[in-house]
Amino acid sequence: MTHQQILIYFGYGAPVPETVPGPSNQNAMPPLKRLIRFTFFLLFAVLLFNVAGFFLINGLSVQNRITEEGENNAASQQIYVQQIVGKIAALAIHHHFSQEQFTNQLEYLKTAAGGFRRGHEELRQLTGDLKALGKKGFSDVYDSTDAAFRFIYSESQVLLSASRVNRTEEPEPGHLYAASGSYLAQMKRLQDHFHELEIRTESRIGYINQGLIISHVVCLLYLAILVIAPVFRQSARNYNELQRSLEEVRETKDLLHHSERKYRHLFERSPQPMWIFDAETLRFLEVNQTAVAHYGYSAAEFGGMTILDIRPETERKRLDGGVPGEMAVQVTGEWTHIKKDGQQIFVEISSHGIDYNGRPAVLALAKDITRNIELQRALLGEKIAHQRDIARASITVQEKERNEIGRELHDNVNQILTSVKLHLEFMGQPGADTEKHRGISLNMVSSVIQEIRRLSRSLVPPTLDDVGLIPSIADLAEGINTLGGMQVLFKLEGFEEDVLPAGLKLTVLRIIQEQTTNILKYAKATETRIELRQEGSHLYLGVSDNGVGFDPQQVRRGMGLTNITNRADIYHGELHLRALPGEGCLLEVHFDLDKVLELDPRVTEAQAE
Description:
Elements: H1 3-9, H2 31-92, H3 99-132, H4 138-144, H5 146-160, H6 173-268, E1 274-278, E2 284-287, H7 289-295, H8 299-303, H9 313-316, E3 330-338, E4 344-356, E5 359-368, H10 370-427, H11 434-459, H12 462-466, H13 469-483, E6 487-493, H14 502-523, E7 527-535, E8 538-545, H15 559-570, E9 574-579, E10 585-592, H16 593-598, H17 601-608
Parallel strand pairs: 6-7
Antiparallel strand pairs: 1-2, 1-5, 3-4, 4-5, 7-8, 8-10, 9-10
Keywords: ATP-binding, Kinase, Membrane, Nucleotide-binding, Phosphoprotein, Transferase, Transmembrane, Transmembrane helix, Two-component regulatory system
GO molecular function, one term: phosphorelay sensor kinase activity
EC number: 2.7.13.3
């Protein structure tokens, strides 16, 4: 077939002679070749545009990341400056502090000064990166803050060198406030620069994405037109084919009439019970040998029975008065039948209306599903029992959390508030040091606020809803690390948080919280590793420690491990616990995300809570 014939077949124009006289057509390109060349050029142009867009977006994304980090660092530096200046000012009037209070204030100042220095160095690196990318102005603003930074940082270091409360040299508040005001103004300016560049970068990325989408739409429209055009020509051919098919159907009907004898043999030899009954009287007309063997009645006994005789009284009303019109056509349903020995069985009936010797009849096939029904009932019972276990475990956890909250409020918050009350009462006595009692009361009230915040975060972690699972785990690890005594390492590999249901993310966080609590209580470990790895539809969670370990066969499963098991079961997770005395412990949970996405999120999220 030539290229012109191919073009005609797909509906692109009328036949063109292979040779056309005249000099004007000697160098003319064939239509199909022109079409193929244009299509190739269009696809190549779209591909080239997409590649260029990819590299542009990639470069802008790097720049956007730098500006976002710079904006956050500039904001953090402003907070650090305020904290450092506040602490230096407080320490300048340290005469009412005890030695322990003064030491605590110095420790807080040391932490703030360290963060202040690190943030300043990070800003140096970020502004240098932007300068390398051709973005001017950031390094100049940063350089203008260097003198103020050095003065504020040196003032903090002077105070940090103190070893006792009584000091002979005090910082100059005026110079310190002037330096902090200059530094804050420049940091605000630098933060605004970062923010403006971030907005411009995101806008450019948006324009590029819109261009890519438009190119895809144009390409798809072109390809759609290319495909749809031949359909109209093909419709005429399909009509002729349909006419020939109808003729073949009429011939097939004649052949079916001659093949009915073959189906008689299939009816008799079917491995499933089959019968034919009258659609009006419901009397058995034919039964196969399998029905005779399965139900215990002989063929002659079936001939004197109706289909009501093999059904209990409770189901006879469904067929009372004959077979409904729709059942005479086709019915599939579950019924209860009675064998000759009185045994009740569950069967699945498939039927079809037929013509039997000129009378309306029904051909039925019965499949014994008694065993399946029994297994389903047993499985349902197990599921109900399992749900009850989960409910009991959830109630136990709630009671445990309530007891812990009550104990925390009584032991910490209540004691602190009692002390505050005593100091407030002392303030009203003659000769009392009012300012001293007032300062102590304010510090205690701040401690109460922090304690209540800690209890609130332990109940409902805000980072899981507002930030995400990964920051929540990182906050948990950082909180344990700050306590000292144990180092928590967090490893992430191929993890896509956006594809996970909210209930599964909460389950993963709760399992990590429960296991790290167990490690802190019992393991005496110095290092704990948390690993999250996603490979396709498989999600892996591992929590290991280098503690004293234990023998899983000898240690009773406590409430903590029971809660972990129940939470994993909600999302069909496979839990493995590996532990040996002296060799630490490894907790592994495997989730199949395909199965997780099939679950009802309303049920699983309620159970995960």
